[in-house]
Structure to design on (230 residues):
């Protein structure tokens, strides 16, 4: 047997000889906290599809590719988002127009995103903590998808909605104020991205407005059908 520790032994003697003294209690390990569920029971029962680590890695890889070559690119921290039953309904709408919808939460620079379209997997990612309606974000990112993959449909919609939109200048002023707040570069009025964002925001806001779709169908009844098949 190994030698006793004389210091420890002496301390035990002192404690034992001191009236009312007690040896310190052994530390009690607390059980690890259970992980916070990302989906409510109602959403699970409705058939909600959770965001997987592979989904998140695909999103990060897409952003890394877009930022390749830029000096001091921001670091984006994403994780699967906690969603209620509403998310299931959004996923069903997304399936109806030919895309997947997944939900994320972000830290740091990632908080600036309300949504993103990742073209490799055909997935629209929606910030679960956005203050905007999920349907609006779905509509916004759907327009980015059209511009990326279906230029003909995007051009048609751009022409069909020209007289239904707000003034571009006031929109761009507000958009650049928001971008500056989140550390993003401002957009010029001539940039294609500014036009995309303007159009995507407009259609995103109209996605939940039946009257908008009625007007659109009255002008071109085949456009919505083309969108669904795209």
């Amino acid at each position: 047997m190994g030698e006793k520790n004389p210091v420890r032994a002496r301390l035990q003697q002192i404690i034992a000889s001191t009236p009312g003294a007690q040896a310190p209690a052994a530390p009690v390990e607390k059980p690890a906290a259970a992980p916070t569920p990302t989906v409510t029971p109602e959403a699970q029962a409705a058939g909600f599809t959770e965001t997987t680590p592979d989904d998140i890695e695909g999103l990060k890889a897409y952003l890394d590719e877009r930022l390749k070559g830029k000096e001091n690119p921001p670091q984006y921290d994403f994780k699967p988002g906690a969603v209620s039953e509403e998310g299931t309904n959004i996923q069903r709408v997304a399936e109806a127009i030919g895309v997947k919808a997944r939900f994320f939460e972000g830290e740091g620079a990632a908080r600036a995103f309300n949504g993103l379209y990742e073209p490799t997997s055909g997935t629209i990612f929606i910030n679960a903590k956005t203050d905007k309606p999920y349907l609006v974000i779905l509509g916004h990112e759907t327009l980015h998808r059209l511009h990326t993959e279906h230029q003909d449909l995007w051009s048609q919609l751009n022409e069909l909605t020209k007289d239904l939109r707000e003034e571009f200048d006031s929109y761009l002023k507000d958009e650049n104020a928001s971008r500056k707040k989140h550390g993003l570069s401002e957009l010029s009025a001539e940039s294609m991205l500014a036009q995309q964002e303007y159009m995507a925001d407009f259609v995103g806001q109209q996605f939940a407005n039946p009257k908008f779709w009625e007007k659109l169908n009255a002008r071109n009844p085949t456009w919505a059908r083309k969108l669904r098949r795209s």
